[in-house]
Write a structure and sequence with these properties.
The structure holds 2 protein chains of 2 kinds. Helix content of chain A is 37%, strand content 24%. By secondary structure, chain A is an alpha/beta fold. Chain A has 2 domains: 178 residues, Rossmann fold (3-Layer(aba) Sandwich); 60 residues, no CATH class. In chain A, the strands form 2 sheets. In chain A, strands 6-7-8-3-9-10 form a 6-stranded mixed β-sheet, sandwiched between helices. The longest helix of chain A is centred in the middle third of the chain and has 16 residues. Chain B has 2 domains: 270 residues, no CATH class; 52 residues, no CATH class. Chain B is built from 11 helices and 21 strands. In chain B, strands 3, 4, 6, 7, 9, 11, 13, 15, 17, 19 and 20 form an 11-stranded mixed β-sheet that branches. A 10-stranded mixed β-sheet of chain B has the order 2-1-5-8-10-12-14-16-18-21. In chain B, a hairpin with a 2-residue loop joins strand 1 and strand 2. Classes of the chains: A alpha/beta, B alpha/beta. Chains A and B meet through helix 2 and helix 3 of A and helix 9 and helix 10 of B.
Chain lengths: 263, 444
């Protein structure tokens, strides 16, 4: 069965602040599809990513998020992950004292244990083999696995570590939150190749980006534009090129009424 | 006018008498000089008030100690090695062991020394035996340079009434390759006044771990201890101390390392147990090129109170001390670290570093850190810091977003916090065990 993530009329804001950042998002992402979500700064792209993953600083005020019909909003972030959702963070968090390998082994074991409470977890040799294979695939130095998670990582290393986590956890639907930001062109290509290697029939992706350039490497099936907390334009790959060419001004002009309507 | 709150009563003193000192010395059939040392310590003890509002003590209220229970010196009651928890007896490494010395209620119940160390002339024995068999070495070092009876009320009491101890001696230029392991276990409530004396002669090397534990009891106990680590010129000592007393034990201890010229002391001190611990942990660098690394980890929960008072004394130029303490507290526990780097006048080119990092796991826990410097030289590099953190939601969310449950995520973050310290414990197995104990504290 093809996994489907449905976002319906989603309204959300920061806890303690009455203003909505998302004001009625509708979007459906299926396994096997690549969606690009573009939009000017402050339009709500990262908020959407974090609300999907269950970041506790956000509060959902209306709407639904369903993964294969199951209510995602009722789930804790770890349950969402085990259900097949993944978020590549824009700002991955450093966890001193916890190595990347140790962390990923725990993450895999958490999955195995939720499927079978008696599971003893992944055998270490099998885990090590898998890690080596995935790191080679993503052109990541194997020494990476022994480093403390994101601690002292360069911007590029952090993003590659996010893609590695995605490769290891094999989500059905992945959200990549500005994974291209802060990368030089070589790092961008490596990250994009990684994303390409993982997307396919088994994974659907929502690639959030401010710039079009990652879309030269990762070919989206659909392009959406977010503005003022809503998806205001949707189309094919050509829409991304149009944005690249014309910028976001025309989106602003065309949808100014949104702001007025909200007041 | 501000209202000054005063403590309503002064701390009670235990009811020891001079006759107890004489009786103990006689019972142990000690040489006359030891009785003299004890009586001199007794004089100091008599002349000092119970510590109370002095700077080092004013944050440490121990008036809830019930000396009626805690002052009776625990006597061996026939308990043997089998009362000691298996985890304390587990070999430090999978490889060869250098030695194992197990005390139960002050009595040696197990004593093993590897042939290799024995042939090298390493002495690894209890202090009572050493007093007879190695009298002159003991006399030279016992409470003469490291911990002295004049260091404080409890140091004096210890000098007067110490009742058992460990003696480790590494002869000149001897590399004791195999680690030595000491376990001090108390099976009955009461007082224990344990001593550790490690003498590493010039150019010698050794690795030692000492563990303290006791059987649970609803009656109070006291541990009035002293640890003396003496590292001669060019010597090297790796020393690990792990304290896990039961929750009715009050520890008052003085611990000091003396590090000679071009010598190295790597000291890890773990504090997990006791109801109240007041430990003076000091290191003196006494020769140029001396290097001391002092590491501490502590985890207080359920009403525990730890007061760790550290001092780095640069008594020679060109010396280096590096102190890192990391601690966590939960429930209504309280911890206090007071650190001081001192130098004698004109001790140039010294490098002293001290930092205490605190992790508060809930709002009721209280952690304080008071770093300090008293440097009387100008060409120095000394720094200090204290940090306080809580378990933040952001890293928990990050770990949870990968499928890890909230309790597991919290556990990983706390273990990660301690990892840097645990990496300084030179034994894999001990590291793993400490992780398990930290886990117990978090879950329990």
């Amino acid at each position: 069965m093809v996994a489907t993530l449905e976002i319906r009329n989603l309204h959300a804001g920061v806890e303690g602040d009455a203003d909505n950042i998302l004001s009625g998002v509708n979007l459906t992402v299926r396994q096997g599809e690549i969606h690009a979500l573009m939009g000017p700064n402050g339009s709500g792209k990262s908020t959407l990513a974090n609300v999907l993953m269950g970041n506790p600083i956000y509060e959902v005020r209306d709407g639904q998020v369903l993964l294969d019909g199951d209510d995602v909003l009722e789930m804790e972030p770890d349950e969402r992950s085990r259900a097949g959702l993944f978020l590549a963070f824009q700002y991955p968090v450093a966890i001193p004292g916890v190595t990347l390998a140790n962390f990923l082994r725990h993450a895999i074991n958490a999955r195995l244990k939720s499927e079978d409470p008696d599971s003893k977890g992944i055998p270490i040799p099998q885990f090590a083999r898998m890690m080596r294979q995935k790191m080679s695939q993503l052109k990541i130095d194997h020494a990476f696995a022994g480093r403390y998670l994101n601690e002292g990582f360069s911007g590029g290393e952090k993003k590659r570590a996010e893609v590695l986590q995605m490769a290891v956890l094999e989500p059905r639907i992945a959200v990549l939150d500005e994974t291209d930001s802060g990368l030089d062109i070589d790092a961008l290509r490596i990250v994009a190749e990684g994303v390409n290697a993982l997307t396919g029939p088994d994974m659907g992706a929502l690639v959030i980006t401010h710039y079009q350039r990652i879309l030269n490497h990762v070919r989206p099936d659909f392009v959406h534009v977010m503005f003022e907390g809503q998806i205001v334009e949707s189309g094919g790959p050509a829409l991304a090129l149009e944005l690249e060419e014309k910028g976001y001004e025309w989106v602003r002009d065309k949808h100014k009424s949104l702001q007025v309507a909200q007041v | 006018m501000a209202v000054v709150r005063r403590r309503s009563s002064l701390p009670q003193a235990p009811a020891y008498q001079r006759a107890d000192v004489e009786a103990l010395s006689q019972q142990l059939n000690e040489p006359a000089w030891m009785l003299e040392l004890r009586l001199e310590a007794w004089e100091h003890y008599q002349n000092l008030p119970m510590p109370y509002m002095e700077e080092e003590w004013r944050r440490t209220d121990y008036r809830h100690i019930q000396w009626d229970d805690a002052e009776t010196i625990a006597q061996p009651n026939g308990a043997a090695t089998n009362v000691v928890p298996a985890k304390n007896l587990e070999p430090l490494t999978g490889d060869e062991q250098g030695g194992l010395l197990v005390f139960v209620d002050g009595q040696v119940v197990r004593h093993e020394l590897a042939d290799e160390l024995d042939r090298q002339g390493v002495v690894f024995t209890d202090l009572r035996t050493a007093l007879h068999e190695r009298e002159s070495i003991v006399k030279t070092h016992f409470m003469t340079t490291a911990v002295k009876a004049t260091d404080g009320k409890f140091a004096a009491l210890h000098g007067a009434l110490w009742n058992y101890g460990t003696f480790i001696y590494i002869p000149r230029n001897t590399i004791a390759r195999l680690p030595m392991h000491v376990v001090c276990y108390t099976s009955t409530p009461g007082a224990a006044l344990g001593h550790v004396l490690v003498v590493v002669e010039d150019g010698a090397q050794a690795t030692v771990q000492v563990e303290y534990a006791s059987k649970d009891s609803d009656k109070q106990s006291s541990y009035i201890g002293a640890t003396e680590l003496i590292v001669g010129d060019g010597g090297n000592l790796r020393y690990v101390s792990l304290q896990d007393w039961n929750r009715e034990t009050f520890e008052f201890s003085h611990q000091r390392g003396i590090v000679g010229r071009d010598a190295q002391l790597d000291w890890v001190n773990g504090v997990m147990g006791s109801r109240l611990t007041k430990a003076f942990i000091e290191v003196d660098t006494v020769g140029a090129g001396a290097n001391a690394r002092v590491s501490g980890f502590f985890f207080a929960d359920k009403g525990q109170f730890f007061d760790l008072d550290t001092q780095q004394n640069h008594n020679a130029p060109l010396t280096n001390t590096d102190l890192l303490f990391k601690g966590a507290a939960r429930d209504n526990a309280r911890t206090l670290w007071q650190g001081m780097i001192k130098s004698l006048p004109k001790m140039q080119q010294i490098d002293g570093y001290q930092v205490c990092r605190n992790l508060m796991l809930n709002d009721e826990a209280r952690m304080d850190s008071i770093p300090g410097l008293e440097i009387e030289a100008d060409d120095v590099a000394c720094s200090h810091a204290a940090t306080f953190g809580t378990l933040e939601e952001e890293p928990i969310y990050y770990l949870m977003s990968r499928g890890i449950s909230r309790p597991q995520a919290q556990l990983m973050i706390i273990e990660g916090f301690f990892d840097e310290l645990l990496q300084r414990v030179p034994f894999d197995r001990v590291r793993q065990r400490l992780m398990d104990e930290i886990e117990l504290k978090i879950i329990g």
